[in-house]
Amino acid sequence: MTMVKMPDANGHTITMVKWQGEYFPPFPGTGSRMDKMKDLPMRDNDVLICSYPKSGTHWACEIARMLVSNKAENHHIEVPSGSWFRYMLDWWNSQKGNPNVLFITYEELSANDQKVVKKMAEFLNCTNTDEFYEEVARKCSFHSMKKSREDAMKIFFRKGQVGDWKNWFTVAQNEEFDKLFQEQMKEAPDLIPRIIFDHQPQAH
């Protein structure tokens, strides 16, 4: 494991941890954790939640915890990158037919209704009442989770909105991204409809 400084086009750098050819945030103990993960014993009822950074990891984890524990209570989670397109395509194309893998999008999580909760409950074989699912959905709303966190954990919760790109992209940038998105995602046309975008850019 080595610490490396990665420059961007403007000459700014970010420090990352390089472990076996991959880059990770420089959290304490990253290398040792990754080494141990290779030999981590897996149980039949283990649940793995995998996501690209800032794509609703804590959101999905909170819902899964409540469903598995059968308690609609917020938990305080301590959580010890490459191309987003490559990440999504590799997972989708290799696992979309796997009955042990459930795909949940950030857009589905942000909808904040019982639909995604019931979907996850069915996948996890967690049976409960509609009232419980409604409570889980309420407790796992973005604002509820952010409010329940200690100050140090609030950095993991930004806005929880779909379409925030309109505050950052110009019309030209949005058109450029749309073109890139369609080009990169052509390997998985069945995935595109699940990623919902509001294609109404605002000029800056």
TrEMBL record:
Chain ranges of the Sulfotransferase domain: 44-74, 77-187
Pfam families, per database record: Sulfotransfer_1 (PF00685)
GO terms, molecular function: sulfotransferase activity
This protein's UniProt keywords: Transferase
UniProt keyword annotation of Transferase present: yes
Cross-referenced Gene3D superfamilies: P-loop containing nucleotide triphosphate hydrolases
InterPro entries referenced in this protein's UniProt entry, alphabetically: P-loop_NTPase, Sulfotransferase_dom
Annotated coiled-coil segments of the chain: none
Protein family membership: Belongs to the sulfotransferase 1 family.
Protein name, UniProt field: Estrogen sulfotransferase-like isoform X2
Organism encoding this protein: Lingula anatina
Gene: LOC106173409
